[in-house]
Amino acid sequence: MTRTARDLLKTITAELAPDPRSNPLVPLIAAGRADREVLAALALEQMRVIPADRRAFLHLAVRSSAEPEADAYFTALADGEAIAQRRLPAFAAACGVDETRAAAYTPLPGCQAYPAYVAWLALNAAPADAVLAVTANFSAWGGYCATIAGALRSHYGFDDEACAFFDFFAEPAPDLDSTAERAVQAALDAGRLDESRARDYGHLLQSYEALFWRTLERPA
User: Fold this and answer.
1) Checking phi first, is residue 63 left (phi over 0); if not, alpha (psi -120 to 50) or beta?
2) What is the 8-class DSSP label of residue 69?
3) Angle between helices 5-15 and 195-217 (to 10 degrees)
């Protein structure tokens, strides 16, 4: 039986699902035991991650001009990052981060490895392979954001505006999922999808994601 994009996305997402032990920080936030300075660092790191990822996705969309389904997927991702960027300042402000503090902040290499690799994918990965890897990675990220949004309200007293950044990523995105499926299916039909390479990309994305959270938990 011919493999479908839906089956492939489901399989690779399950394969790349992170070990719960790989993210020590989100459970601390969920329990209300993470220091507010850690939350501030999370905001400061995301202030660099989000615009970097948006530019990377826009570049992937440009590189996908001959693959309209992939183009639509990366354009939608870039649009989502733009929305997230507008919601991020409220979270940062709730953490005590102002423009002066943001300007003086030195980003942590372990946190910025993730967007650096996304930028590498934007320059080097075949668009369809990147679709598969990024989609699998986003499954874990959405779950983290849902947990953080709930904890910020219940343990830290943050209001809806301050939680909106995480609420956005925690929301189901059926239209985006459908767009990813169409992009992967088109690549499968055209014989231009390298599943092995996409798995490698996805594995590295998940590894850099885990490094992001471990670095925030122990920045020293």
Assistant:
1) alpha
2) H
3) 40
Q: Is residue 157 classed exposed, middle or buried when 0-12, 13-18 and 19+ CB atoms within 10 A define those classes?
A: exposed
| Residues 107, 46: Cα–Cα separation, whole Å | 10
Is residue 217 within 8 Å of residue 28, measured between CB atoms? yes
**What's the whole-model pTM score?**
0.94
Distance CA 121, CA 15 (A): 20
168-172: long-range pairs with CB below 8 Å, 24+: 168/80, 168/83, 168/84, 168/87, 169/84, 169/141, 169/142, 169/145, 170/142, 170/143, 170/145, 170/146
Residues whose CB is less than 8 angstroms from the CB of residue 181 and which lie 6 or more positions away in sequence, other chains included: 5, 6, 9
Residue pLDDT, tens place only, 18-75: 887 889 999 999 999 999 999 999 999 999 999 999 999 999 999 999 999 999 999 9
User: Would you give the DSSP letter of residue 162?
Assistant: H
Q: Report residue 51 as tokens.
A: 């615009």
> How many degrees, rounded to 5, is the angle at CA 64 between CA 3 and CA 181?
30
Higher pLDDT, 138 or 38: 38
- pLDDT tens digits for range 149-191: 999 999 999 999 999 999 999 998 999 999 999 999 999 999 9
